[in-house]
Every structure is written in C-alpha cells, then in structure tokens.
Model the fold of this input.
Amino acid sequence: MLTIGVLGLQGAVEEHLNQIKAAGEQAIIVKKPEQLREIDGLIIPGGESTTMRKLMDRYGFMEPIKTFFEDKKPIFGTCAGMVLAANELTGDEVAYLGLMDISVKRNGFGRQRESFEADLSIKGMEAPYKAVFIRAPFADEVGEGVEVLAVYEENVVAARQDHVLVSAFHPELTGDDRFLQLFIEMVKTSVNKAELKTC
Done:
C-alpha cells in the first residue's frame, strides 16, 4: 500500500483524502514539513494560491517540498497547486515552487465563470473526462520537456513533466478517479525505482 499525503494548509483536502482511500491507498494530511518523510507522493490541492503560499512560508514548507521534488518523489498539483508548481506566473507575480517548466495564468478563465464543467479529451484516456473548473488557472506556455495531457479553449489545463503532474481542474470533486490513478502509477514507479536502488 502506498502512502499519499495531501498538503493540509488550506483548500480541498478532505475530498482528496476520500478519493485516495477509495482507491485503496493510505492517505494522510500533511501539516508539518517532517511528515514529508513519511509519504511516497504529495498532492498540493486547490484553494487560494496566495493564501497557500503565505501558509507554506509560515510553516516552513518551501525548502522541504523542493527537497521532496529533488528526491524524485511524485507531486500532483491541482488548481492552486498548479499555480504553485509553475516555473513562471503570467504578469508581474513571482513564481513560487518552480517544479515544472510552465507559465501559468491565475484565474485564467475569468472570475465571471467561477465554476463550470467541461468534457476533456485526456491523452492516454479513452473516454472523455468530465472536469470541474473553479476559478481555474491555465498554462499559456510550456517547456520542451512538458507533456501536455489536456487542452481546453486552446489553453493547457493538464500536463506532466517527469515526476510532477498538474491539472487546472479539480479531479477530487468527481466520481472519476482516472487522474488519481495516473498519479498512483507515477508513485508506484517512483517507489519501485527507489527499492531497486537499495537492493
């Protein structure tokens, strides 16, 4: 059984925990940086990215999450988590964690459309995926090493680079766990590689 942590500072934490448990994996709320040593993969949930940045600073998460990333452990950023993972933010804002070679626009679809659903074609998934967008960002630029997984209105809304996965939408708010399963497979691969190194 894998142990997947959900950063528990702010945002849609409980929904992620429930989906992880329903998938048969162990889920824990990560509220202290030292808990990162206990988990195989980390989800940075949706919420308010500015608030989450301040709380990460206050509780000393910045460097530990970067170390987690440098140790090649998988990270999944959803909505605000996608904003936090970006190398660059559109406009004058300073990027935060810099985990993925993408430029992200906060509230990219506009506040007037605070919540909407869309059927997306996801790379590697046969059936359409009904995605829930809530004041969602999007990536307006991606680096060469980034694999684009989904586009909506010509904007990138899901992508993967090495051991980092991001989505502009909230996969935890649907009954469709295919995005979580994609992340679980990334975590399994990471754990298997780590076990081979210790053999």
Q: What stands out?
A: The CA atoms of residues 26 and 199 lie 25 Å apart. The first strand starts at residue 3 and ends at 7. Residues 178-198 form the longest helix (21 residues). The chain has a mean pLDDT of 93.
